[in-house]
Design goal:
DUF2922; DUF2922 domain-containing protein
Length: 78
């Protein structure tokens, strides 16, 4: 499964991420930019008078791959 990672700059210039685990996996640049502009414009996540998602910066999909080294099942080592 891919996670959609939306990166913004807050009002003081620090990077902030909004990660969505169940987002559509085929979004195009125009759609994502529009959504990020909408999120930034709503200012609904403001904390301590700072909008953490003030300026859209980037969007990426993140894939997590787990590679077991040992164990992971319920059997005991002999």
């Amino acid at each position: 499964m891919k996670t959609l990672d939306l990166e913004f700059l807050n009002e003081v210039g620090k990077a902030k991420h909004l990660r969505l685990a169940y987002a559509n996996q085929d979004l195009d640049e125009t759609t994502v930019k529009h959504a990020m502009d909408t999120i930034a414009g709503l200012k609904m996540f403001e904390k301590d008078l700072v909008n953490p998602y003030a300026t859209p910066r980037a969007a990426t999909y993140i894939e997590r791959k787990v590679t077991p080294i040992f164990g992971g099942d319920d059997t005991e080592a002999a």
